[in-house]
Structure formats: C-alpha cells, structure tokens
Write a structure and sequence with these properties.
By secondary structure, the protein is α/β, with parallel strands linked by helices. About 30% of the residues lie in helices and about 20% in strands. It has one domain: Hypothetical Protein Ychn, Chain: A (3-Layer(aba) Sandwich), CATH 3.40.1260. About 25% of the residues are buried. One of its GO terms (cellular component) is sulfurtransferase complex.
C-alpha cells in the first residue's frame, strides 16, 4: 500500500498515525507540508527512519520550501514521474491528512 502524508508533523499527528498502521511492503510518500518531517533536525526523524518502511519526499515540495540542503540524505527524493510510478506500483492508497 502507498501511504501519502500531506500535513506537517508540527500541525498534525497524521504521520505518527500512519507509521502505526504501515506494514511490510508499504511505502510512504511525504508531500506538501509533510516534507518538513525529513528535516535533519526533526526530533522524530529517527522513528521515521527506523520504521523499516521506504520513505520518499516529493522533490518539488522540498524545493518549494527551500529545504533541499536541510533534509536527511537517507530519505529518497522523487519527482512527479516517481510519484506516478508509486501509484502504479501499489494497487491501494491511503491518504493521511
């Protein structure tokens, strides 16, 4: 399943809730304000990285917020083509807002 999270972890608990429900084979795409979860200085980043789930950041949203040099390098940046590829790969999708 593909999980998309759109709200900042500073505004919402949607990412925390998402991490509680993911399972093996799932992937998470952080987009819109949720990309701030990928900041190196985010205190919850360790939990995100230790979830064992592949996490992606939408590159356009990272750039739009001027965060390209502040995000953790272990997280995967993807473009819109990558976003489409993830939606094709997963037959189920859950949006966390």
């Amino acid at each position: 399943m593909l999980h998309t999270v759109t709200r900042s972890p500073f505004q919402s608990h949607s990412l925390t809730q998402c991490l509680a429900y993911v399972s093996a084979g799932d992937e998470i795409l952080l987009l819109e304000d949720a990309v701030v979860a990928g900041l190196v200085k985010n205190k919850d980043l360790a939990a995100i990285k230790n979830s064992g789930i592949k996490i992606y950041l939408l590159e356009a949203d990272v750039i739009a917020r001027g965060l390209q040099d502040k995000c953790d390098k272990d997280l995967n940046l993807i473009d819109y083509k990558g976003f489409v590829a993830l939606t094709v790969k997963h037959d189920k999708h859950m949006k966390w807002a």
